[in-house]
Design goal:
By secondary structure, the chain is α/β, with parallel strands linked by helices. It is built from 12 helices and 12 strands. The longest helix has 13 residues. It is globular, with a radius of gyration of 19 Å. Bound molecules: S-adenosylmethionine and iron/sulfur cluster (2 copies).
């Protein structure tokens, strides 16, 4: 492989998150609040979405430019019909690690097929073990038990270790974090707490709802002593810890209190084929237009390379009272 593609801050392009749909069956208050994403919300039309063949072509181009890891996301990616067919197109691309982030709602029935199609691992979002608290966050009264069944099905299908993402909002689910930790200790799954972020412009973000990872790790460490573990690879966003008694790993993603832009090697492809170089981006680089207008592989690669090489993003390091209200793309659009 040729020299890595570097941006203006010398960060290589390594990771690609592909949003396969902007739709979701949940209305998590921190992501797609019902008041905004209601019955009149204009989601993308089917013809606006990249087709599976188009996604596979773009992914091969990203792979040639150095991307090693692809995560399918959304919206809720498993709502895209026959997602296993896309996995079967992407999994054979040499040197590519294929993963999925899902709310787990459909995983019980789909996990085995995903594993057969070549998916390697899965991350499932689950914010509480208490149905009433979980309902306050997902806002569709989705039962915890079905997400847990999805996690079990994923593990049984070999999509291990399952990572479980929990976004913590101080006034809503902080009180349940020890229950979550207790539940997943010793299970082989890796629970990760994510600081509530000011993504998009509609989720009513407030700093006093953010629970700093330091506070959470102190709470959990007081119940079961933990110690830090070395990062798996440069640019890993989760800070890894393990229980001293051997009950496994736990992670913290501190995007607000300990920004990790310096190591950010992640590009994002929206469901309509725009390339974003930051979760907090405003303008994407259109790839669907050139693809449908017959661009060659080298033209497509040049467009992606140029977007990456001119990248200056470091929103989380610059976050301040002034940046919170700036226009940004919604997370459900470009994927978490
Ligand atoms: N629907 C899938 C899911 O929920 O896992 C995939 C897309 S979702 C946008 C990806 C991840 O972003 C989820 O783990 C979700 O909890 C996280 N997320 C969404 N909004 C967030 C916010 N405001 N702050 C922190 N994490 C957020
Ligand atoms: Fe849907 Fe995931 Fe956003 Fe929740 S976090 S609304 S499940 S896309
Ligand atoms: Fe990467 Fe942007 Fe997040 Fe910084 S704010 S870590 S540049 S996505």
């Amino acid at each position: 492989m040729s020299a890595p593609l570097l941006d203006t801050l010398r960060r290589p392009l390594r990771d690609l998150r592909i949003s396969v749909t902007d739709r979701c069956n949940f209305r998590c208050t921190y992501c797609m609040p019902r008041a905004v994403f209601g019955p009149d919300y204009a989601f993308l039309d089917r013809k606006e979405l990249l087709t599976f063949e188009e996604i596979a072509r773009v992914t091969r181009t990203f792979r040639a430019l150095g991307v090693e890891k692809v995560r399918l996301t959304g919206g809720e990616p498993t709502l895209r019909r026959e997602l296993d067919k896309l996995m079967a197109l992407l999994a054979p691309i040499p040197g590519l690690d294929l993963t999925l982030t899902t709310n787990g709602s459909t995983l019980e029935g789909l996990a085995a097929g995903f594993a057969t199609a070549g998916l390697k691992r899965v991350t499932v979002s689950l914010d509480s073990l208490d149905d009433a608290v979980f309902a306050k966050l997902n806002d569709v009264a989705f039962p915890v038990a079905r997400v847990l069944a999805g996690i079990d099905a994923a593990a049984a299908a070999g999509l291990r270790p399952v990572k479980v993402n929990c976004v913590v909002k101080r006034s809503v689910n902080l009180a349940g974090v020890l229950d979550l930790a207790r539940h997943f200790r010793g299970s082989g799954h890796i629970l990760r707490f994510i600081e509530f972020m000011d993504v998009g412009t509609t989720n009513g973000w407030r700093m006093d709802e953010v629970v700093p990872s330091r506070e959470l790790s102190a709470t959990i460490g007081a119940a079961w002593p933990i110690e830090p573990v070395e990062a798996n690879y440069p640019g890993e966003v989760a800070e890894r810890w393990r229980y001293r008694d051997g009950a496994g790993e736990i992670g913290f993603i501190s995007s607000v209190t300990q920004a990790f832009c310096r190591g950010c090697n992640r590009a994002r492809l929206s469901a309509d084929g725009r390339l974003f170089t930051c979760l907090f981006g405003v303008h994407g680089t259109d790839l669907r237009g050139p693809i449908r207008d017959g661009a060659s592989d080298s033209e497509l690669a040049a467009t992606i390379a140029s977007a990456w090489q001119t990248r200056t993003d470091r929103y989380s390091e610059l976050r301040s009272a002034e940046t919170v209200g700036l226009p940004k793309v919604e997370m459900s659009f470009i994927g978490g």
